[in-house]
Amino acid sequence: MAESRALQRSYPTDARMTRWHAPDGWDHRRFDWPVAPGTPPRGRILFQAGRGDMFEKYLESFAHWRACGWSVTSFDWRGQGGSGRCSPRAHCGHVERFADYHADLAAFWAMWRAEGDGPTIAIGHSMGGFLLLRGLVDGAVTPDGAVFVAPMLGLKGPLGPRLAARLARWMRALGDPARPAWKGNERPATTETRQSLLTRDTDRYEDELHWQQADRTLMTGPPSWNWVAEAFAGTLALADDPRLDAMRVPLLALVAEADGLVDARAALAILSKLPDARIERFGRETAHEILREADPVRDRALAAIDGFLDART
Fold it and tell me: Domain named Serine aminopeptidase S33: which ranges (predicted)?
């Protein structure tokens, strides 16, 4: 624990940060942390974070998996973190279409999978979980096992998803689709603070602020109306996808039932359709970022993931 905590606000000296260009030429930032010399290698993990995230937020978890013998790779989604932005508003989380995310993940997976041997595991948090499941259903991502952490399989809001989707399309059409959908908080029209929506652990929440203050280009603010409309359309389409029943990759899903950002009930409904899915439920003890919560929650989450990896590899 002490070793991983020390990595919350510093880059590991034996990790590599490079650039990767998608087939359409889009510039992405890539992170690789090979297993330590002398540690028996168990395989490779590709970890993909959520909307507005950057891989620095998960260095502590990467250190845990690396200590267990896993090499860890991640890349920042286009439009956020250290990857090329999709809007002149540098801090707006905009993307032209979710199909770009899907194409990026498929291309990166094919390249990364060919770079090494042994078991491969894909882990996706929030939006990364949605994009990962879509890649699994499409057959574009083919790991030996997958882990979803608070997956964005539905969006939280006061309206039902179909009505909210129509409203988002209408708002997108009213002006510049790349304009911010709201100001400030992670969720509009809420009295909850950004921290309370993400994590109860103040120290880990401030890790993100540390990285953003060290490099302002890493900051991503509210999503664009185009992102919101695409997110509703994509999650609704996935919920109705008949291929869910045939998706055979074994997976573990960590679901935060009190999540204020993504719809846990929608996630549970989709996950129930998968033939080989184990679900670990968390209650009010955690907000959205389960892997960045207080130690009792985070330790339970890592133990569940470790058990899944032990059983599957």
Answer: 40-295
Which of helix, strand or coil describes residue 263? Answer: coil
Give residue 224's domain range. Answer: 2-312
Question: What angle do helix axes 225-239 and 161-174 make, rounded to 10 degrees?
Answer: 150
Give the CATH number of the domain where residue 48 resides.
3.40.50.1820
Question: How buried is residue 3: exposed, middle or buried, by Cβ count under 10 Å (0-12/13-18/19+)?
Answer: exposed
Split into its structural domains, the chain has a count of 1
**Cα–Cα dist 187/194, whole Å:** 8
Under 8 Å between Cβ of 20 and 253: no
Cβ neighbours around 148 below 10 Å, total: 28
- Is residue 307 within 8 Å of residue 254, measured between CB atoms? no
Q: In sequence order, what are the residues at sequence separation of 6 or more whose Cβ sits closer than 8 angstroms to the Cβ of residue 156?
A: 187, 259, 260, 261, 262, 263
By C-alpha distance, which of 252, 238, 66, 235 is closest to 146?
252
Per-run averaged pLDDT (10 residues), the chain, 313 residues: 65 96 98 94 97 96 96 97 91 95 98 96 98 98 98 90 94 95 71 86 94 92 96 97 96 97 97 97 97 97 97 83
